[in-house]
Amino acid sequence: MNHELPERITVDPLVMSGHPCIRGMRVTVANVLRLLAAHHETERILHAYPYLERADIDACLEYAALLTEESPLEVTV
Questions:
Q1: DSSP-derived 3-state class of residue 57
Q2: Which of 10, 21, 41, 67 is 20 to 30 A (C-alpha) from 52?
């Protein structure tokens, strides 16, 4: 990836097998994105993960946006 990670997203091979996480915690960006895709509201996510902040969820969305700019997925119709 040529873009810098959003400030709150960390990648550490010793945490969650190197998957992008929020602030070094064991909460992956993918998990937060899955919750958002399942129509969980931000407030519900923050209630389920009280150690997260709204800015963490925003950083996950920013990270996902950067990934889609880097290499578009092939879609089969």
A1: helix
A2: 67
- Domain membership of residue 22 (yes or no) is yes
Alpha carbons within 13 angstroms on the beta-carbon side of residue 31 total: 16
Virtual CA dihedral for 37, 53, 62, 28, nearest 10 degrees?
-60
How many separate domains does the chain show?
A: 1
Both tokens of residue 4? Answer: 């810098």
- Whether 67 is covered by a domain: the verdict is no
Quick check: is 41 in a domain? yes
Q: Tell me which residue range forms the domain holding 38.
A: 1-50
Tell me which residues of the chain have a pLDDT lower than 50: 1-2
Question: Could you report the per-residue pLDDT of 37-50, keeping only the tens digit for each?
Answer: 999 999 999 999 99
